[in-house]
Amino acid sequence: MLLLNPGPVSLSERVRDSLRQPDLCHRESEFFDLQDEARARLLASYGLKPAQWSAVLMTSSGTGAVESMIAALVPQGGRLLIAENGVYGERIAQICLQYAIAHERVVGDWLQALDLDLIDDRLTPTGNAPRFTHLAVVHHETTTGRLNDLQPLAALCRKHGVGLLVDGVSSFGAEAIDFSDESLSAVAATANKCLHGVPGAAFVIVRRSVLAAAASRTYYLDLGRLARQQDARNTPFTPSVHAYYALVEALREYEELGGREARFKRYAALADQVRDGLNGLGVMSVLKPSECSVVLRAYRLPRQLSYATLHDALKQHGFVIYAGQGDLAKELFRISTMGEVTAPDMDRLLAGFAGLLR
């Protein structure tokens, strides 16, 4: 069965085999060697210097990494503006509510790009209103497959002197992220999407100068404590050891296959193959290719098929696709080309669609 949902992904054999390595105590030096390698390789994936950036590992899903980032990096007394155009932007707002973090939301249409003028206006201090300290955004909003452009958002952050916090859960490892921009404070991500690891290992790539002032609102997901202990070759809790095995093996494979640029090109070729094939069958893309991530794209449901019918029929052909979310559930479906999938696999997928539509 090939997974065409936005994570977890279909694994390569070498990553799957890594799960069969010997059982390992998380207090032994061998585990800390593994942890050190994972952290170093995560930074190397974007050419980051360990003196300036820290890769902080945790056992959680990608949402745990986002929660850890928001809870730690918006300071006590800070104020966050959330730019939203999908489910995962909403989730950041829910995290803020949970921790009583002062925040406001710029909520846009899920099928539209973010309104930069409105974000600029909200970041501009007026009257006695407290200024924002940070802006949060989802880089790749998998609700629709939209890739939110970080460059103009970073420019607004520099203009207003605020830090940028990025949910990069489904973009890190494939899409470009400009870590040289001084406004970028942190990116939260996970092992089981573009890096092709397994669920259970997540991380935050955080600027060390920002990490030094991290708040401590949470216990298990305390980013500052995790970073300090990992820098000292330690861990505060029992991590998912085998998920770390898989992450390291996936990162080794990632480097050997050409790193981020190669992964981007691979995804782009597969995504274009699927888009061209489906458009040729009359199944149209929801967004223009220039607005989409290469990781996932959304398509209009054919009028004659319900999502359940489409999903179940394709599953019989060996493929798992993904439904729309919220109000879009009745209008669209989504296909991701992450993981161990190939062009011949996509040919078989398109043949399955053609048979259904006939």
| Estimated radius of gyration | 20 Å
Multimer state: single chain
Largest sheet: 7 strands, mixed
- Counting helices, strands and paired strands, the structural category is alpha/beta
Order of H and E elements: EHHEHEHEHEEEHEEEHHHHEHEEEH
List unreliable stretches of 5+ residues: none
Q: Biggest sheet: strands side by side, in what order?
A: 2-10-9-8-5-3-4
Sum up the structure in keywords.
seven-stranded mixed sheet; 358 residues; 18% strand; 14 strands; single chain; alpha/beta; three-stranded antiparallel sheet
Structure explained in plain terms:
The structure is a single chain. The chain is an alpha/beta fold and 358 residues long. 40% of the residues lie in helices and 18% in strands. The chain has helices at 13-18, 29-44, 62-73, 87-99, 116-123, 150-160, 208-211, 223-231, 241-256, 259-280, 307-316, 343-357; strands spanning 2-3, 53-60, 80-84, 103-107, 134-138, 140-141, 146-147, 163-167, 184-190, 200-207, 296-300, 319-320, 322-323, 332-336. Strands 2-10-9-8-5-3-4 form a 7-stranded mixed sheet, sandwiched between helices. Strand 13 (322-323) and strand 14 form a beta hairpin. The radius of gyration is 20 Å and the shape is globular. 47% of the residues are buried. The mean pLDDT is 96.
